[in-house]
Design goal:
single chain, 70 residues, alpha+beta, 3-stranded antiparallel sheet, 3 strands, 40% helix, N-reg_PII-like_a/b
Length: 70
């Protein structure tokens, strides 16, 4: 399975609402570098990345468009 980063942030909490919405829609996703950003938040080079399976990108785009319109 190939993973794609759809959003990134220095703060994992910025990604959690979208992650929760995707999971509620049955889309498997995870936060890459989640723990690194928690421990090393003072270093700007580390970012958390919200990733989804490449196969789910069409549905993810629909959800993200819907969220942006709201």
């Amino acid at each position: 399975m190939s993973w794609v980063t759809i959003k990134s942030s220095h703060y994992e909490t910025d990604l959690l609402p979208l992650k929760s919405r995707l999971e509620a829609e049955g889309i498997q996703c995870f936060l890459r570098n989640e723990h690194t950003t928690q421990v090393m938040s003072h270093m700007a080079t580390f970012v958390a990345e919200l990733q989804v399976a490449k196969e789910d990108m069409e549905k993810v785009r629909e959800i993200m468009t819907e969220i942006e319109k709201a």
